[in-house]
Amino acid sequence: MRNQTKHFINGEWVESTGSDTIDVINPATEEVMGTISSGTEEDLDKAVKAARAVFPTFSKSSKEQRIEWLQKIAEGYKARKEELIEVMTDELGAPLSVSEEVHYPAGLGHFKQAARSLKDFSFIEDRGRHTLIKDSIGVSGLITPWNFPTNQAATKIASAIAAGSPVVLKPASKTPFAAMILAEIIDEAGLPAGAFNLVNGTGSVIGNGISSHPDIDFVSFTGSGGVGEKIMQNGAETIKKVALELGGKSPIVVLEDADVKEAAKTALSNIMTNTGQVCSAGTRVLIPQSMKEEFEKTIVAMLPDFPVGDPRKEGIATGPLVSEDQWETVQSYIEKGEKEATLLAGGTGKPEGLEKGYYARPTIFTDVSQDAVIAQEEIFGPVTTIFTYEDLDQAIEMANDTIYGLAGYIVGKDPDAIRHVATNIRAGRIKINDAKTDFNGPFGGYKQSGIGREWGDFGIEEYLEVKSVHGLPSS
Ligand code: NAD
């Protein structure tokens, strides 16, 4: 049991001013694995005060100093590798291999990338008739979701440190422990007291408190669209800058010349990795009409390659969903899908032998119409939908027929077709075949998938204000 009821405020682990706590449930066992504090507005105020107090010096720290902090954090992160992997498996339900190969490197990648990006970053630029100065934006409030405990926190924290912005982080209360390990790592890296603060608690108290706090200048939020909307409304009262990383319903466009097995593998890994709880997951598979029969046969036959089960057991690809609520939500979408489309595999209920734990059956729907609920809404579970298209223009139109625009995937060979689709999908990140992720590639959404970009140099820019100085004497 992890009973970690302290917050990290002004360089110290401190008791909450309140006594309420939140239980953290292991989704594979349905048992309480630990307890955190349900922080109060007073706790948040203390953290914001600490951040505000250090702002004048932290925002003027040198680039070299920030690079050193980021590198020390990356070293500290590597030293806690085993613990981070274990904790993410227990709090999120990610199989150990996924915690090790997806979650662990994602967090590390952001700290290393921010240090790399800073090396070439100019905080002052001569632009001919004016000089551009990039200043820290002020105090930032960071609100993160549960589905990528280290990735989401790390990208925000790394960019903020690179920009000299002190932060208050509120991690998701379903998965707080990886973020608390991050806090310990950051503490050991020697940042000045107040530069990094972590306050645990509910969205309604701490999250809401962050978005309406008059002394917070910028809110970087990752989570659902509904909460994003509230954050924008709250932030508007004090004219806060708000960055939102929201949901998606991303297309996978399978080209005529694609290898069917590769296409099926891409489609399945998109819904099976992290149990489909991935904002950028490709969950609408668009295949040429002529490929329908072969693709459907291939994807169903490939399902056993992604075994579902106990995340601590070797060889498991997909663990449980994060919570009972999430399980219920996914079930209700599968029920809707059964009425709207043809069920090719899976369905409602739990997989055989996995009655304890929030496990869902990997589910594939075909003959889905564009206006079906399961075609339009983010399900956030191991559920995919198959559509057919007649020609590439129709595929692009279908790919873009969504309120979202976070990501897009292309499987196939023809370079002209790939370029045509990649440049016409209205989304912030496109992945072609098995291309590797570049941590300097901006991440964020078009349309209702969000506002702003994270990762690398674009991520750092979010935490900066620009000032144009006209007539600056040269030094
Ligand atoms: P959520 O919106 O319920 O919660 C996200 C965070 O907001 C949590 O820390 C929560 O406590 C907090 N929160 C809740 N109510 C709040 C309020 N009124 N004011 C301020 N904060 C509040 O989302 P979730 O269920 O944790 O995560 C799933 C969603 O996140 C999905 O829609 C997914 O697509 C999205 N997501 C997006 C990205 C991205 O980068 N675009 C990445 C991961 C997840």
UniProtKB/TrEMBL annotation:
Signal peptide: none annotated. Pfam families: Aldedh (PF00171). The active site is at 245. Transmembrane segments: none annotated. Residues 13-469 form the Aldehyde dehydrogenase domain. Keywords: Oxidoreductase. The keyword Secreted does not apply. One of its GO terms (molecular function) is oxidoreductase activity, acting on the aldehyde or oxo group of donors, NAD or NADP as acceptor. The keyword Oxidoreductase applies. Belongs to the aldehyde dehydrogenase family. This is Aldehyde dehydrogenase family protein.
